[in-house]
Amino acid sequence: MLIQIPDFVKTYSEKCELIFLDVGVIEAHNDFNAQTAKVFSCLLSGEFSKEGSEYNCIKPTQFRKVVGKDHAEFSTAKQQDADEYLRYFLTKVDENEKRYRPVDAVRLKLEQRLEDSASNRVRYTQSNEYVLSLVVPE
């Protein structure tokens, strides 16, 4: 899904050389931006989806280790909730990529209106979100 968003493509594919220059060869193995750039570059290159090729796959094992590091659930190989993982991943992108800020393309400000029925007072709260959850009636 994220490889369809131009800001992510620019940051992690078109500008991936800058990421690797900033990080260096030795640190790239454990660097969030470098591992994300590797996955984006592989997915967008088409080199790993050639029919009949022995390299017809991408195994993002190191990517998963780096992204899930320091998280109790995402550091395991167990199945995860997609919504929770997407929110977590976008938070990690926001923390790690300060130059191009690709998360701004999917960030939205959610305003919630709360009304106290006893006093008729109204309060508004705002929060930054990456995913808009909607209730779909049956």
Automatic annotation (TrEMBL):
One BP term from GO: protein deubiquitination
UniProt-listed PROSITE patterns: USP_3
Q: What are the residue boundaries of the USP domain, all occurrences included? A: 1-138
Q: Which GO terms describe its molecular function?
A: cysteine-type deubiquitinase activity
Protein name per Swiss-Prot or TrEMBL: USP domain-containing protein
Q: Which organism is it from?
A: Gongylonema pulchrum
The uppermost taxa in this organism's lineage are: Eukaryota, Metazoa, Ecdysozoa, Nematoda, Chromadorea
